[in-house]
From TrEMBL:
Primary gene name: BPNT1
Name this protein carries in UniProt: 3'(2'),5'-bisphosphate nucleotidase 1
GO biological process, one term: phosphatidylinositol phosphate biosynthetic process
Keyword list, A-Z: Acetylation, Hydrolase, Lithium, Magnesium, Metal-binding, Phosphoprotein
Pfam families with a match to the protein in the record: Inositol_P
Cofactor(s), by name: Mg(2+)
The species this protein was found in: Crenichthys baileyi
Residues given in the record as Mg(2+) binding sites: 74, 117, 119-120, 273
Length: 335
């Protein structure tokens, strides 16, 4: 480490290592076969042991090294002592070596807000676990690892760990861990990857790609659709619609050239779903707004629900905003 890195750079470096720790926890719980599932508000809003342990690990680890930051996690967990084996003390050396953008060099801990989704795509995580259980009972692998063969293992792609960092209400840095990246390659593959981004620095850990300019591919919700969502997606006149889980996963589709717009005209998404992905998307020139084109705020005291939906693009954001039907705008309340 050279010199004395700025607080925000140390926080991002810690978040990177903590996200990798959380990803390992998510994998371990899946392979244990005991997910410890509880329903929070219904069958489409689940919490697992992985959600609970990963959030404890993230929040306790960051709080230990940055006691003055505000951390807001998805899971409502009781205050209790966290086991030492859940604590991650490491920091990504590559991030510490980078020069902090001038506008963030003097930031103090108490000015930063961290938004945490310990396991984005919980429903898909539980479905993939059931598939793995069935193949274990049958003592043979499921046939195929994709949608065409009717297995749920492809849903592992949907699962992410999200840690977003905000300053002045704006998402300025984010870390996304994909715990099961490379799962298709079998037991010999190194599972997982971590990507991160920061305004003024760029984004790292993936190869930026774009959908061809003459194609409109919309990614939207897999399990939380309704008439308003469907009407809005159709209004975009897409050449293709991809229905998958996880806000983090949908932003990854944008930055890796699998989709040109993420359209979710519903109030189901929360700030911890979008803070980290938004920061990474913005770091490569993209945009994430509500369906009216208004930016979301990530101050500590804002409401958690993204009431006016989510619209994210890598390019041509104004076009997609212009296509949102008035009926959809009237159905959603802008923050």
């Amino acid at each position: 480490m050279s010199g004395n890195p700025a607080v925000v750079m140390r926080l991002v470096a810690s978040a990177y290592s903590v996200a990798e720790k959380a990803g390992a926890i998510v994998r371990k719980v899946l392979h244990s076969g005991d997910l410890g599932i509880v329903e929070k508000t219904g069958a489409n809003d689940l919490q697992t042991l992985a959600d609970r342990l990963a959030q404890k690990s993230i929040c306790a680890s960051l709080s230990r090294h940055f006691p003055k930051i505000t951390i807001i996690g998805e899971e409502d967990l009781p205050a209790e002592e966290v086991q030492e084996d859940l604590i991650e003390n490491g920091q990504a050396e590559d991030i510490l070596q980078r020069s902090c953008p001038e506008e963030y060099r003097a930031l103090k801990e108490e000015e930063l807000v961290v938004w945490v989704d310990p396991l984005d795509g919980t429903k898909e995580y539980t479905e993939a676990s059931r598939c793995l259980h069935l193949q274990a009972v049958a003592q043979k692998p499921c046939k195929g690892l994709d949608k065409t063969h009717g297995t749920a293992l492809w849903l592992l792609d949907n699962v992410t760990v999200l840690i977003g960092i905000a300053y002045g209400g704006r998402a300025i840095a984010g870390v996304i861990n994909q715990p099961f990246y490379n799962y298709q390659l079998g037991a010999e593959a190194a599972l997982g990857r971590t990507m991160w981004g920061m305004l003024g620095l760029g984004a790292f850990g993936f190869q930026l790609q774009e959908v061809p300019a003459d194609k409109r591919i919309v990614t939207t919700t897999r399990s939380h659709s309704n008439k308003t969502v469907t009407d809005c997606v159709n209004a975009m006149e897409p050449h293709e619609v991809i229905r998958v889980g996880g806000a983090g996963n949908k932003i990854i589709q944008l930055i890796e050239g699998k989709a040109s717009a993420y359209v979710f005209a519903s109030p189901g998404c929360k700030k911890w779903d979008t803070c980290a992905p938004e920061a990474i998307l913005h770091a490569v020139g993209g945009q994430l707004t509500d369906m009216c084109g208004n930016a979301y705020r990530y101050n500590a005291d804002v409401k958690h629900m993204n009431s006016a939906g989510v619209l994210a693009t890598l390019r041509n954001h104004d076009y997609y905003v212009s296509r949102v039907p008035q009926s959809v705008l009237q159905a959603l309340k802008s923050d």
